[in-house]
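Bench notes, afternoon.
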Amino acid sequence: MNTTAITVIVPVYHGAVFLKECLSSLRKQDFSLPYQVVLMDCSAEKDCADLAREYERIDNRFFYYRREENLGPGYSRSLGMFHAAGEYVTFVDGDDIVEENYLSCLYKMAKKTDADVVTGGYYLFSQKRRINGYSRVHKTLSGQKVLKKIYRSAFMKYRTFCWGRLIKKALLFDNGIFFDKDLQQFEDWYFMNAVFYHAKKTVFIKKPLYG
């Protein structure tokens, strides 16, 4: 029986200083259920690879995988999905951090609403100041309604980044939704358009959980 609630997928490539902050924030989660962190290294710099291996050594929730070929973050995330044991997956970039209640807030809302996708609010760092991002909405919509709003929203309140969301793994695998390995930029757009197209219910919450 699968008891892993969430798999966090982190592409590992460069920026060891930021990666350390990222992984530290994932270790400090207040989430009470089992979760795993998949560190997907596709030809990462040595200091990042060493750091990822160290986290795997000190914390049995962290799993490190390496491929010598670098085909970008989308390819790394797709490979990470095949190592995911969780009922849900979430993507965190290696130069970002999450709040201590990131997993618990998203999971609680997913279970409460039976949503296919739950998106939390986010914030940006600018000269050591914290600025809330544009996703300051609290709504429950079908995925296809989200797509319509994305193309009508000048300020991208319903953004198409893959990070900061909790997604049912079954939605991804049942519909063959993976990142296009040939896209080196805006790979999130392709991926999230497919996610929203197939999602019956999506929930957006205001609370900034992702930095």
